[in-house]
Amino acid sequence: MDTAVQLALRAGQVVRKALTEEKRVSTKTSVVDLVTETDHLVEELIISSLREKYPTHRFIGEESTSAGSKCILTNSPTWIIDPIDGTCNFVHRFPLVAVSIGFAVNRELEFGVIYHCTEEKMYTARKGHGAFCNQEQLHVTKETGIRNALILTEIGPKRDPATLKLFLGNMEKFLTFHAHGVRIIGSATLALCQVASGAADGFYQFGLHCWDLAAATVIIREAGGVVIDTSGGPLDLMSCRVVAAGTKELAQSIAKELQTINYGRDDD
Ligand code: IPD
């Protein structure tokens, strides 16, 4: 985990510098699914450094997967990397961008590191050892119901009318049930860190990926929270959907209300 922290710091420096510079932007699965040369550069920096130190380990990276690498979690030690989470924010200089590095062995998530590049906040958690932000221990909230909760979500890359109807319908439900608010901040990893920090009560999303979830899942669980599938069952890291909350009651209540948006699977 120390290696991951050092690499996230180095990557964060690159992202911070590039944030205000001119960028070359391309699209991936849809016209709003963006990538820049800095995403590629940072992923290469992280993976090549880790590969040199741990030559037998496997890697799942957002941009390597887009370029055609297989996204399959095996029992081997595997690093799961999002070089810039919040690429759309990054493109617009909206200062919520993060580097996310998770590590799994035997398909179990062992530790996670998320670096909030502009606020220079390092979120870390190792299974059984608690979750921290810059050495300060994190704790989730004890909110059990949707009423009065602050709930975060993210939009995902599909914008066809049927998907948008489901997306807005889900949001409308939580507002109708008097959630205090529903927020979209543009970075799934940082939204999940807010839940871990007790600054929000819950999070749900369809259309995120294993690299958005791997590190954040350990951080939320170690802060005392729960991370489950939108069906209410156990989390499936490859299923492109998630509910997270400070309590299992809130997580289950959120899951119960959601209409499913199908994004397929990362390992398909
Ligand atoms: C995306 C962001 C976005 C979320 C997407 C993610 P990226 O990650 O977290 O907020 O809606 O589902 O894939 O593409 O910026 O690394």
Automatic annotation (TrEMBL):
Reaction(s) the record says it catalyses: a myo-inositol phosphate + H2O = myo-inositol + phosphate
Enzyme class: hydrolase
Family according to the record: Belongs to the inositol monophosphatase superfamily.
Pfam (any one): Inositol_P
Coiled-coil region: none
Pathway recorded for this protein: Polyol metabolism; myo-inositol biosynthesis; myo-inositol from D-glucose 6-phosphate: step 2/2
Binding sites annotated in the UniProt record for Mg(2+): 62, 82, 84-85, 212
Protein name: Inositol-1-monophosphatase
Cofactors: Mg(2+)
GO biological process: inositol metabolic process; phosphatidylinositol phosphate biosynthetic process; signal transduction
Record InterPro entries: IMPase, Inositol_monoP_metal-BS, Inositol_monoPase_Li-sen, Inositol_monophosphatase-like, Inositol_monophosphatase_CS
Keyword Metal-binding appears in the UniProt entry: yes
EC number(s) stated in the UniProt entry for this protein: 3.1.3.25
Organism: Pyxicephalus adspersus (African bullfrog)
UniProt keyword annotation of Transmembrane helix present: no
Keywords, sorted A to Z: Hydrolase, Magnesium, Metal-binding
Annotated GO MF terms: inositol monophosphate 1-phosphatase activity; metal ion binding
